[in-house]
């Protein structure tokens, strides 16, 4: 809700995210002898470790079972710390928390999704009984909140300032909202003066001046969420005046 000056009367609430639909699986077990199992596992191990997708298919054929994941494609993760939360949230729903999948199959799916240095981290893990160890290794490197927070704040500081163009500033605003959304999940201080100053510095002098004018009407604590809303208002007002003057 906006007041008479166009300033938000209260901080914008964080929208709740509806995760992916329940995972379903089709399980068709077949009974095979120990000798056949040993031969099948030997065939899997003989496949190239660099081709986890082939090994995944071979394992499912070997154990005589078929599994079906949701229709969307699993994301790939290349080892960028700031991209890990988005990757893991999808992988957890589709694979990690899928009780119909045995651990060896989960490991094969994980290896299929990883790329580069992230895959190198767990390439040497054998198929049998290694999934929990592989997950711990991945989370230890990429799931540390302090490391992720530091990387995101560094990315925020290094983000180039926008040009004078209103569309370009809207693009910058969108990028800042996305970055701050990740920091929010890490409980970053939304009232940090340094963070507020860094965010405002990403816009043109004219926009910063308009933001300072709008902030004078705010009677509650200024937070990053409020600042981003104020910046949006300032940009919309400039865009409207530009259209009227055309």
Short description:
InterPro entries: DUF1759. The chain is mostly helical and 246 residues long.
Mean pLDDT: 78
Percent in helix? 55-70%
Q: Which series of helices and strands comes N to C?
A: HHHHHHHHHHH
**Continuous helix count:** 11
Low-confidence stretches: 12-50, 52-57
- In total, the number of strands is 0
Q: What does the radius of gyration come to?
A: 25 Å
Commentary on this structure:
By secondary structure, this protein is mostly helical. The protein has eleven helices and no strands. Helix 8 packs antiparallel against helix 11 and helix 9 packs parallel to helix 11. The longest helix is centred in the C-terminal third of the chain and has 22 residues. The protein is elongated, with a radius of gyration of 25 Å. About 18% of the residues have low confidence.
Produce the secondary structure layout.
Blueprint: H1 34-45, H2 52-62, H3 84-96, H4 103-113, H5 116-122, H6 131-142, H7 145-158, H8 166-185, H9 193-200, H10 205-215, H11 224-245
